[in-house]
Structure formats: C-alpha cells, structure tokens
Design goal:
TIM Barrel, globular, alpha/beta
Length: 341
C-alpha cells in the first residue's frame, strides 16, 4: 500500500535518539554574583541581523522520517507540561500528571520500540493552589513540580507577598519556582532594583530551581530583553524564560536568539550554564523543531537536556504525538485521538 511504513522503518536507533533522557554531564549550577553594570548596559542587539539569522532556522534546517521522530521525542523530554487556566481543577491536574507520566500512547511506544527509555516530560507546571495535588499524583516518578509564583502573571503584588508565595509553594513540595519580574524595572533601566528583586527570589528558593520569566512581550526592545537576561543570570537565575503566556506577544525565535546568546556570553565569562525556557505560543511539532535547532546551533549539545532546556507548553504535546503516529502509519489522525488532559 502506498505510504505504508514497515516495522523496521519506524523503529528508531540508539544513534538517532542520541542518549535520550541521559545526562551529558554535570555542569556548575548558577549562583548570585556581583552586578556588572558595564556588561549590562553594553549589551547590543542588531534587529535586522537577528531577523536574518532566525530566517535560516525556518528555511534551511529540516529533518525527516526517523530522525524527525527522534528529535520530537527529545522535545517531549524537555517539556514543562503546563496548565495555568482560571478554570483549572484538581481532576484536570491529575489527568495532566497522568499524561506527564505517559506522554504518548502505549501502542505508539511499542511500535517505536522505545519502551526501555521510560519517556517522561521535564516537569509539570501549575499554580500554587495545585502544587500539592500534582506532587501527590507524580509521587515515585521523579518528575518535578514547578509552581508559578511571585504574583504571576503581572508580578505587581506586594513584594513580601511574592516572596512568601515562593516559601508556601516549596513547603507543599514544589521543586522548581517560575517567578515573574517587575517589568517596570527594565523599562526604566533600574538594573540594581531588578537585580535585588531576583536575588531575593533566589535566596527564597534555597535548593529549588529558579526560573525567571522576563515577560519579553512587555519589554519593548530586543536590547532590553538581552539586558534583562544578563541581570537575571547575575542575580542567580537557573533558567531564564521568555513569557508568562499571558502577554500579547509571547515566545518568538528572535527573542529566543537574543536570550540564548546572552546565556552563551554568560557561560563564556563565568563557566556557568544557565537554562532557557521558551513559553507561550509554542503549539506545534514544527515549532518544537525550530527551537531545538536554535538551541543546538547557538548553545550546543549539552543544552539539549531537560536540565538546561524546557518548553513551556501544553497543546504542543498533542501535535507531537500526532506527528509520531503519522511517522508510524503514514496517515494523519484526528486531534481528538491525542487528548492532553
């Protein structure tokens, strides 16, 4: 039958998987260092050059067949499976956690011959009110629970309350904290204030991972994005994240290029690896590949691990599962066959 894929064709080799789920080695965690204003204010962003570079990712980079399937499996391991809706319920969180534990259907796992990998997502990300529910549902899996905190999504609640919210999420089991910055500090060039804010969040997190959301859609310029990235890393961010998903414009490849190059500069200067998380508007398997290509080319293989790269996404998982079924069968299935939660 035309378009039929044989069993041998849809199996994925160890070489193609590239050590899926295996750490590439321990890299030094970030810590708070002294604010270097010269480095911050000296950051430049050439918008036209950035746009040209981004175009090469979407027009000149591609993978096909079993190689594409392997890259999509990699994307799943780097996903923060997320629900941040006003109508979230405990039952929805439990269903989300079930999907996190088995992100693609068992029949697809068997036909891809990837059962021994124990495929899992990078984390589950929820509001503070549902942290305890998620921790209970994920017990015994080693999948971390991330809590959005510090007045998410606007970051404008009283500062003491924002810090207290971090403590409360940690007390009920969160192991990662996604905080939002005060965008006004960036827009007003108040770099010391921004540094002090994030450094306080870092101290409150203790051993938990701190992911700092810049809200790039609110920052006006790519230069501001780069400068805010540098300040966040100096203040101790373990990850820098593009967006809350609530801004008019969320993750874009141009913004991501600026942030990844800031990460590379910081790594060259300090010997420390900071992670990156695009979030908001990342919904398709094609987009997942574009961001993975960006990370591979700008930061290198070590960043293609959940310890240093995450997608903030939910709907994207369904599209990836659909693409994997197409790889196996040669036919596209209905989206209803790939529910999230």
């Amino acid at each position: 039958m035309e378009g039929k894929v044989t069993a041998e064709q849809h199996q994925i080799s160890t070489e193609q998987i590239g050590g899926l789920g295996q750490s590439t080695g321990t890299l030094p965690p970030n810590r708070t260092i002294r604010l270097n204003l010269d480095l911050v204010t000296g950051f430049r962003a050439n918008t036209s050059a950035i746009e040209r570079r981004v175009q090469t990712l979407v027009t000149r980079r591609t993978v096909k067949k079993e190689w594409q399937a392997a890259w999509l499996l990699r994307a799943i391991t780097c996903m923060d499976l997320t629900t941040l809706s006003g109508d979230d319920t405990r039952e929805r969180i439990r269903r989300l956690c079930a999907k996190a534990k088995q992100p693609i259907r068992q029949d697809l796992v068997e036909r891809l011959s990837i059962g021994p990998l124990g495929l899992r997502v990078g984390a589950v990300c929820v509001y503070h009110a549902f942290v305890e529910t998620a921790v209970e549902a994920l017990q015994g899996t080693n999948i971390p629970v991330a809590a959005v905190s510090a007045g998410f999504p606007a970051g404008l609640s009283p500062f003491a309350e924002r810090v207290a919210e971090i403590h409360r999420s940690l007390e009920v089991g969160a192991s990662e904290i996604d905080v939002v910055i005060t965008r006004a500090h960036v827009l007003g060039g108040e770099w010391q204030a921004l540094y002090d804010e994030i450094a306080t969040f870092k101290e409150a997190c203790g051993q938990a991972h701190l992911k700092v959301i810049l809200g790039t859609g609110d920052l006006m310029t790519l230069r501001n994005v780069g400068r805010a990235s540098m300040v966040a890393m100096m203040a101790g961010a373990d990850f820098i994240k593009t967006s809350t998903g609530k801004e008019p414009v969320n993750a874009t490849l141009a913004v991501s290029l600026v942030m990844t190059r800031a990460i590379r500069t910081y790594a060259e200067l300090t010997g420390v690896a900071v992670g990156f998380k695009p979030a908001g508007g990342v919904r398709t398997a094609k987009q997942a590949l574009e961001w993975l290509f960006l990370i591979k080319e700008e930061l290198g293989r070590p960043w293609l691990e959940p310890t240093l790269f995450r997608f903030g996404a939910s709907g994207m998982l369904g599209d990836i599962e659909r693409q994997l079924e197409h790889f196996i069968t040669g036919r596209y299935s209905s989206s209803s066959r790939h529910p999230l939660a």
